[in-house]
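Course assignment 3, question 2. Fill in each field.
Student: A.L.
Task: Predict the tertiary structure for the chain below.
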Amino acid sequence: MKIVNQVKQTNDYSLFSILKGNRSINKAHLNRLKKSIQEESLCVPIIVNENYEIIDGQNRYSAWKELELPVYYIIVKGYGLPQVQRLNSNIKNWNNDDYMDCYCQLENPQYLKYRVFKETYGFGHYESIAMLTGHFKGSGLSFTNFRTGTFKIKNYKYACDMAEKLILVQPFYDGYKRRSFVLAMLDVINNQSFEIGRLLQKLKYQQSTLVHCTNKQQYLFILQDIYNYKASNKINLIYNNGE
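Answer field:
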């Protein structure tokens, strides 16, 4: 029998550090852990690397520290952020906020800029990525690059311009952040014949026509009807929409 990675115990909390790029401490989960540990403290060790950076179990570590109880740990050399993400995905999948925060902690300029955009305009991750990468036509958007740290912004200024035009619709339609509506609006905004002022003017009289739809195509038809209402120069806003 070969013994590897023995469980160690210490009350020296200063030995350990949170690995840069790992998820933030979940306060609700931390409180649940503390309550459970107070009822019965089980020996479930945390995993650290040779630098005592916590790879798995930072919530358990925080709970033990706050309760002034011993920390049980295993040292595994060579582990880093990729192993953190893999371990966590097997327990509780990282969401897009986790990935954004991770790469922002690592001071990746693309993600720092992305976070500013998302916090400024308040759109979801899917819609924000679509605007910042220009990938809003055709089949579903892939999050692969975003989650692997290779996300690249195509044109930040143009994305801001699209977001600001979308926000102008808010007084007329409370569903302006709905994914299908955003994707439809991005299509029409990129139509060279489209003028946002004309749409806003038409919405003053056609606001009730803009209702929730189940897909982008339905929104495109409604937007075109509103845009061309009583207009002598009717514009096709549906062609080349990537569907």
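Instructor remarks: The chain has a mean pLDDT of 87. The longest helix spans residues 27-39.
Grade: pending
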